[in-house]
């Protein structure tokens, strides 16, 4: 099915973002995200959250081969990403929306990921026929 193949490609491309950002946050630390000063606590927190981000991206990516079979997985990951986006939106409203990468992350979290989750559900439904 063509729609399944296009979804698979879209999920792979989209998962590059959290995988890349997660690895960068782990390897480079808060500087990856524009931090000018830091503390050991900030480095620790960024490392932990970057690990979560990496895991989210990897789980999306490993779901690609049988994308139509992972409705629950996509929903759980999508909710996690969306809630993270709501937190980013809240912080942005309080302090400003930061640099372009952070603004694009917000779009990914609040728009693209929910659309991918809905698209996955459609493909799952269609493949069940």
In short:
The protein has 4 helices and no strands.
Explain what you see.
This protein is an all-alpha fold and 129 residues long. It is 79% helix and 0% strand. Helix 1 (2-27) runs antiparallel to helix 2 and helix 3 runs antiparallel to helix 4 (100-127). The two termini are 12 Å apart. The model has no long low-confidence stretch (mean pLDDT 95).
Give me the secondary-structure topology.
Elements: H1 2-27, H2 40-62, H3 71-95, H4 100-127
Largest sheet data: none
Q: What does the radius of gyration come to? A: 16 Å
The poorly predicted ranges are: none
Relative helix content: over 70%
Q: Compute the number of helices.
A: 4
Task: Give the H and E element order.
Answer: HHHH
| Overall strand count | 0
Distance between the termini: 12 Å
Beta-strand percentage range: under 5%
What attributes characterize this protein structure?
4 helices; about 130 residues; about 0% strand; mainly alpha; elongated
